[in-house]
Design a protein that fits this description.
CATH topology: TIM Barrel
CATH superfamily: NADP-dependent oxidoreductase domain
Strand order of the largest sheet: 3-4-5-6-7-8-9-10
Oligomer: single chain
CATH architecture: Alpha-Beta Barrel
Number of helices: 12
Strand content: 5-15%
Helix content: 25-40%
Order of helices and strands: EEEHEHEHHEHEHEHEHHHEHH
Number of strands: 10
Largest sheet: 8 strands, parallel
Radius of gyration: 19 Å
Length: 323
């Protein structure tokens, strides 16, 4: 496992981190299997774990807290997120700070996450939705500063709405946040335009989420793909999105080199961008942990292949189903 500096925090984090949504928000999760997978990641050198209160109303946080306590001799970076008060994903332009993150709500959920984790403090607190217009209301800044002075967390970040990397550039430029979490993968290269340069200028950490585009970049989806009732993917992969995603993923398959899998290619594409501090693929099985962690050892993609993949940039705008 290789490590990268997490912006101005100075933390050295594993370039392959761990996204924990699937352990509480997707069907098919099993806590015993989840804990085995998490521990395997630690054993392979992963030290950055991203969760949220919204992932099972704190269930994912509880799993992470158990993992940290099971590894007292290792520094594991704990990142979680405050849910918006209105529980609406994604945020919309008309939402005010009071709709999503009034000061008392921030306070309540920082303490709730600490209770779920069973820890006295954690490393990174993130706003689970974001609007750059909230910079004009400094009440969140004052509350965050107060809680940070209390030693409840060390850094603050934002999680940017799907396909809106522009809606966070001002926050980065303000110097008020330490990191951004944004969708970045072979299809979604838009953060390279303005967000990543802003992060480089302000020395903010970058967490790349959805490296597999919710599964399409694994190459396993088909036009007949379906999930169990209640699974979030049924609402995301509506017919028009599923068809377009499958077609674009199929167009990538001829580019996968012999001896390489499509998921490996997707992860190593992200590694080629030095602006990314870490990425957080979701993993629930040990075999997936083994495969994903090995991408760090294999390193960057050859320049020629990387250039070909850049041609598959897919410019998308938010839709009703793109929560």
């Amino acid at each position: 496992m290789k490590y990268r500096r997490f912006g101005r925090t100075g933390w050295m984090v594993s370039e392959i981190g761990y996204g924990m949504w699937g352990m509480a928000g997707w069907t098919g999760s099993d806590d015993v299997e989840s804990m085995q997978s998490l521990q395997r990641a630690v054993d392979l050198g992963c030290n950055f774990f991203d969760t949220a209160w919204a992932y099972g109303n704190g269930h994912s946080e509880k799993l992470l807290g158990e993992l940290v306590r099971s590894n007292p001799g290792k520094k594991l970076y704990v990142a979680t997120k405050i849910p918006p008060k209105n529980l609406a994903w994604p945020s919309r332009r008309e939402f005010a700070l009071d709709d999503c993150f009034p000061p008392d709500h921030i306070d309540r959920y920082v303490h709730s996450s600490l209770e779920n984790l069973g820890l006295a403090s954690f490393d990174l607190i993130q706003f689970h939705t974001w609007e750059d217009s909230w910079l004009e209301d400094d009440r969140w800044v004052k509350k965050i500063d107060d809680l940070r002075r209390q030693g409840l967390f060390r850094a603050v970040g934002i999680s940017i709405n799907r396909w809106e990397p522009w809606n966070g550039v001002r926050a980065v430029q303000s110097g008020l946040i330490d990191s951004v979490q944004v969708i970045y993968n072979i299809f979604d290269q838009n953060p390279e335009d303005k967000l990543f340069p802003a992060c480089a200028a302000m020395d903010a950490g970058v967490i790349a989420r959805c490296p597999f585009d919710e599964g399409s970049l694994t190459g396993t989806l088909t036009l007949e793909s379906k999930w169990a009732q209640g699974d979030w993917r049924n609402t995301y992969f509506v017919s028009q999105n599923l068809q377009a995603s499958v077609e674009r993923a199929n167009a990538l398959k001829p580019l996968v080199p012999h001896g390489m899998t499509m998921p490996e290619m997707a992860l190593r594409f992200i590694l080629n961008n030095s602006a990314v501090s870490t990425m957080i693929p979701g993993m629930r099985k040990v075999k997936n942990v083994d495969a994903n962690m090995s991408a760090s050892d294999k390193g960057l993609l050859p320049a020629e292949l990387h250039a070909k993949l850049r041609e598959h940039r897919w410019v998308r705008t938010p839709k009703k189903w793109s929560q």
